[in-house]
Amino acid sequence: MEMEEGEGSTEEKYDVEIATTASSLGGSGVFHIINDILGFVLYMHQQIPSVLQDMSLDFDGLQTEFTDLEAHLTQPDVKPVVRRKLLSSKREVKHEIKKMQKLMTTISTLQSALQLLIREAPDIQRVVLILGGSPLRPQKAYELLFTRGDNGLSFEGDFSKSKATEALSKKTIRALISTGAGSTSCPGPMRLFVLVQAPPSLNLPQDFLPKRDFRYNRKFVPLKLRFKCKTQDNETNSPFNSGTNDLIWFQCRHIVPCPLKLIEVSLSLVNNTQASILAGNRSTLLRRRKKMIFKIEDVTVYFPYDNIYPEQYEYMVELKRALDAKGHCLLEMPTGTGKTIALLSLITSYRLSRPDSPIKLVYCTRTVHEMEKTLGELKILHDYQLTHLGAQAKILALGLSSRKNLCVNSKVLAAENRDSVDAACRKRTASWVRALAAENPNVQLCDYFESYEKAADNALLPPGVYTLEDLRAFGKNRGWCPYFLARHMVQFANVIVYSYQYLLDPKVAGIISKELQKESVIVFDEAHNIDNVCIEALSVSVRRVTLEGANRNLNKIRQEIDRFKATDAGRLRAEYNRLIEGLALRGDLSGTDQWLANPALPNDILKEAVPGNIRRAEHFVHVLRRLLQYLGGRLDTENVEKESPVSFVSSLNSQAGIEQKTLKFCYDRLHSLMMTLEITDTDEFLPIQTICDFATLVGTYARGFSIIIEPYDERMPHIPDPILQLSCHDASLAIKPVFDRFQSVVITSGTLSPIDLYPRLLSFNPVVSRSFKMSMTRDCICPMVLTRGSDQLPVSTKFDMRSDPGVVRNYGKLLVEMVSVVPDGVVCFFVSYSYMDGIIATWNETGILKEITQQKLVFFETQDVVETTLALDNYRRACDCGRGAVFFSVARGKVAEGIDFDRHYGRLVVMFGVPFQYTLSKILLARLEYLRDTFQIKEGDFLTFDALRQAAQCVGRVIRSKADYGMMIFADKRLPLQTCRYSRHDKRSKLPGWILSHLRDAHLNLSTDMAIHIAREFLRKMAQPYDKTGTMGRKTLLTQEDLEKMAETGVQDMVY
Ligand code: SF4
């Protein structure tokens, strides 16, 4: 719309019309409506951190933080490095206080100016709020029109807000949201300008200046609102029919500056979990850091925040029960409820309460990112415990990862992957290389390792919490290798954070974790897929390329043997003698000479001597050649073959003359030979290691495994790709030593439903098994089950339906409709890469993709990690700048497991279909058979459980805190059967409780148009202000006083 100065038209159209029963709004009503809409505009377009009413709370929080920092700095024993960090945080907080102060002062001056204006000219009729660089270059504009009642506008003397005005304000905000106002964020920080039409006689030069030439840019259309009073008749619809030509525009001199940095920080404060805050901005983190000390029975718990969620408290109570009972436990708690900090607080406090007990916390994470996040949280907790308890709270906590993540030698780090870094390190640190370097100065060593070795027993880490970054920095500073230092310190550390494999994969656990004490508390975080990790740790695949590589390795080994025979035959003889004597193969090795332990579990490794037929190096090579030949022959098959390890070993024995006992020792024998031959290129010898790994496992286990040989992938039968897989079906095998060895093992995740299935899959008896609800102040999760398109045709990824044009079209239409309603980020998950590729190609041909791209940018997950990371970066950027984006991804992919789409990065997630595993897979069928026969778990039950945990994992990506909100659509006609009816009949649900509790009956069998309606309603609801501390007497944020009261009265009812 183009509007000339002072121009009016009786045909002017309004986006929102608000009728009020009052005869006049009155000056006070007008002021409050302007003020509320001003707050709405600033907040909804993400220009201020919180609604106007809450800003003073945020400001108080900042000031308290500043005082805390000052107090901390005055303490005499603050180390220089901590002091530096605190000073920098103090500067940051101070800067934020200034900005917040300026923002609050301007808003308050603007409010006073508006009040003055209303006193002077109660007849004001038109007010414009403009967000943008200047009034002439608006990004958003809201034009408010107050039409007169018979009485005209008047000023009643005071500006208190009446109930009627309050109701009118709410009505207006609701109406605004339903038009989609505020659903888009503005690109970057803006300024807010206020313009009013008033008589030219207005004389408030301190606050308002005439702006006669004001008009919008030709192409710009403001959002218009009109407020109509009861007594107003049709003739007075236009404000300009009674002398409006006399009015002119005035611009308020008080322009609201909107500081983006502050907004980013504070939005994360509002929306992120404590965990993500901790991982990110230090000042935000410090601002949240408050002090809570409370008792759970005999344990004094130190919790580094000013409030605790009720479910965090409950979680701690149950965890303590398990620790007291010295047993294992299963705890399911929704994402975004602060599971990690609850767990760390309880276990470290438990340890403090029992100073004589050697309790160690071993925290296993799936990714390095999660490891760093956990250590970040622990740091804050530790700082807090130190300030309260002083030196007695000191601990040593460290993260342990591969050389790739810890090495500081730039030449070694240049190697491209993990195996190459390991091999490059070994080339500089193996004992024989170092011995050679003593004679030949041209042999390259690692200076960091040499200094570390030189320091010998003095190479220790002082107490503290060390992330991988901290370890690298410490190592560089001292000149010691951080990797070997961390490995060495594991035995002294009170808290160790590392990956699952360090405990579950016997090849790694045998070296890294063998020293851990029984009293250690083992935590597997995000453990919903733990059964798959266990199975993978004991499964091996052999392809043609593996056999070819292994043959090359054997040639090289053979050459080396010949070379040694000619130059240093004594070495081979010594090895032979050692093997005859049956000496432990690895027991006397230095740290640098160990690289992988035996793949079989500790209890299964025989302590006998190595069999005679493989003691001589050349005999061993000969046995391996026969094994390769046999495996090559087995791969030359045209049919799928499945057999048990027992029958495989007997056939191998009869055809190649290799016995079971010989197979069992292959891995250790190879290890010994490679050391004797001083081979350091371990990465080049991976194929032969895989073969020996296979041989040892197949020779060790008779139950729980299958050997499956497939000539091609069934989905691509025309491409020959033979594969021989030794597949483990029993997850309990890998985890059994952990349960047997340690006193308490905690298995925890946001998705462990049905919680009774895990003890059966992993064969253990938990002393505590609990699933916690999320205490909510509002229904911020909106799950829906969509079964039909707008044309009522069912949608599903069931094999016979998934390619149906109607299904593909309906899925596309669903997305097109949703992207036009939902602001910011939308994430879509498909059941597989091939399905995603197919459906998107069809959408492209039918123009659906184009319709989507008209609303939002589109990004894809691919199998290439770098490409996907880039796509994710750009996706986030598109969400940040307000353009909005759609991310296409795959269930069971990297994105589904480890990437968060919190806040505006994910307002909706659509799960297209149910992510069942490929049910014709021979490995899956063998596992299902095993589960049925051994654990009496029905095939259908397991498949549904597995598919729904993956689906829950995908949709859970959008909610990472309680302040967040998001919708989840399960788009498949099979879902109601799998979720609700299932739960009704069997009294057991396979979706986590925190999703099911929000899944209403009315949201179960939806068509696309019904889902759109629900989405609109939900978004409107989420835009309303709410009380974050809880309502109706049920608290969702507990203070220290609440906990004390609960302890006194024993009333725990208040928590939910
Ligand atoms: S010893 Fe340490 S610093 Fe040196 S190459 Fe190996 S991992 Fe890197």
TrEMBL record:
PROSITE patterns: DEAH_ATP_HELICASE, HELICASE_ATP_BIND_2
SMART domains tied to this protein: DEXDc2, HELICc2
Keyword Zinc: no
UniProt KW keywords: 4Fe-4S, ATP-binding, DNA damage, DNA repair, DNA-binding, Helicase, Hydrolase, Iron, Iron-sulfur, Isomerase, Metal-binding, Nucleotide-binding, Nucleus
EC number: 5.6.2.3
Catalytic activity: ATP + H2O = ADP + phosphate + H(+)
Subcellular location, record wording: Nucleus
Residues of the Helicase ATP-binding domain: 298-576
Coiled-coil ranges per UniProt: none
Cofactor(s) annotated in UniProt: [4Fe-4S] cluster
Xref: InterPro entries: ATP-dep_Helicase_C (IPR006555), DinG/Rad3-like (IPR045028), DNA/RNA_helicase_DEAH_CS (IPR002464), HBB (IPR010643), Helic_SF1/SF2_ATP-bd_DinG/Rad3 (IPR014013), Helicase-like_DEXD_c2 (IPR006554), MAD2L1BP_domain_sf (IPR053729), P-loop_NTPase (IPR027417)
Stored Pfam families: DEAD_2, HBB, Helicase_C_2
Domain of life (superkingdom): Eukaryota
Similarity annotation: Belongs to the helicase family. RAD3/XPD subfamily.
PANTHER family according to UniProt: DNA REPAIR DEAD HELICASE RAD3/XP-D SUBFAMILY MEMBER, GENERAL TRANSCRIPTION AND DNA REPAIR FACTOR IIH HELICASE SUBUNIT XPD
Name of the protein: DNA 5'-3' helicase
